[in-house]
Amino acid sequence: MSLPIEDIKNYHLSQNEFESMYFYKTELQTICRNLNLNTSGTKFDLNQRIIKYLNHDPQTNGPSSQHNGITTDLKLSTKIINGVKLNQQLRNFMANYYGKETFKFSKEMAVTFRETKANNDSSITIQTLIDINDGKVSVNTDKDDASYQWNQFVKDFCADLATKPIQNKLKSAAILWKLVKTKADKRYSHNLLKYLP
């Protein structure tokens, strides 16, 4: 599948059509580069830039300069846009809050974090992340799930006992992925093995 750069550039592709397609991060970077958009960030960030382009929405280049400083003293009331990052400092704060040795960020927390930064939302605090972790606030991760589909596909492919003799599993999984990445159901199925050379 060739990249729909010209269709995007000329607004011949709707947001729904774009979202129904799957792209590798490098492909999204190529699209962004051709549209003169920022090419840094996660797949989610790149997707959002392209969607904003398609919808004629203004691009944001990350948090404003007033929020670029890293917060050193974390509190429950600390706003995410005030320089908080999903890093070891926040992980230590959360572990201490829960009285644990270690702490892992959930996908819901990561989605909220990215959306907060993208929308420059000053209402989201560390307390919000704790409420999400405690199940008091639900977060829709459907859009973010696209970023994990390839990883799950490879995991399921490798878990299939029939793939045990395959030498280069990643290359073989990529061949099969090309068959399903533009379909609605992007899950691995044992039946796909018949398409391997």
UniProtKB/TrEMBL annotation:
SUPFAM superfamilies given in the database record: SAP domain (SSF68906)
Alphabetized Pfam families for the sequence: SAP_new25
Domain named SAP: residues: 20-54
Record protein name field: SAP domain-containing protein
